[in-house]
């Protein structure tokens, strides 16, 4: 009987001790870091997020800059043509310089055509357009393993419509960076 009463007393003390610990946490013994001063509302203005790639390189600086030529990633073509227009050659060169300087970067060149022509013809035309851009990139130092091409033909129009304004927006190659 004395042993039983002793065990009950020890158990009661253990419970009270546990409650005492819980009260300490409730009273604010847990350290709370106040980050509101470091990231105040005025500090958020102009903030930019940057990240590290898998290899630890800083990414996104040139590709995310809206004033950079790299922000433009669509090259338009004349009707039934796969020749890159003279006005767009500097744009392709800017992407070539970036890719040559960043050999870990990879792009997909997506070739498109307007709705005129048969499905097979438009797939071929989209492919020829993507290959034209590919050749220009490779000629300027981009390695073949950095570039993939795909032709969507008329399947993914940028603009819906059945007039020259819509067709001119759909005759294009889009440069898609793989880690963007």
From TrEMBL:
Cellular component annotations (GO), alphabetically ordered: cell outer membrane
Annotated compartments: Cell outer membrane
Domain spans labelled OmpA-like: 64-180
Pfam families on file: OmpA
Membrane topology reported for the UniProt record: Lipid-anchor
Keyword Zinc: no
Biological role: Part of the Tol-Pal system, which plays a role in outer membrane invagination during cell division and is important for maintaining outer membrane integrity.
Family as reported in the entry's similarity comment: Belongs to the Pal lipoprotein family.
Quaternary context: The Tol-Pal system is composed of five core proteins: the inner membrane proteins TolA, TolQ and TolR, the periplasmic protein TolB and the outer membrane protein Pal. They form a network linking the inner and outer membranes and the peptidoglycan layer.
Name of the protein this chain belongs to: Peptidoglycan-associated lipoprotein
Organism: Thiohalobacter thiocyanaticus
């Amino acid at each position: 009987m004395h042993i039983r009463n002793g065990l009950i007393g020890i158990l009661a003390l253990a419970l009270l001790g546990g409650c005492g610990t819980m009260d300490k946490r409730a009273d604010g013994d847990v350290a709370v870091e106040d980050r509101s001063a470091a990231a105040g509302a005025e500090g958020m203005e102009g903030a930019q997020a940057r990240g590290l790639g898998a290899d630890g390189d800083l990414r996104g600086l040139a590709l995310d800059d809206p004033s950079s030529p790299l922000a433009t990633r669509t090259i338009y073509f004349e009707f039934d043509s796969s020749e890159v227009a003279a006005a767009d050659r500097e744009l392709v060169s800017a992407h070539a310089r970036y890719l040559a300087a960043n050999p870990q970067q990879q792009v997909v060149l997506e070739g498109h055509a307007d709705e005129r022509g048969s499905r097979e013809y438009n797939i071929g035309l989209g492919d020829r357009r993507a290959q034209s851009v590919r050749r220009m990139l490779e000629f300027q130092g981009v390695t073949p393993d950095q570039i993939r091409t795909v032709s969507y033909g008329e399947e993914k129009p940028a603009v819906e419509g059945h007039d020259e304004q819509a067709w001119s927006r759909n005759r294009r190659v889009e440069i898609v960076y793989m880690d963007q």
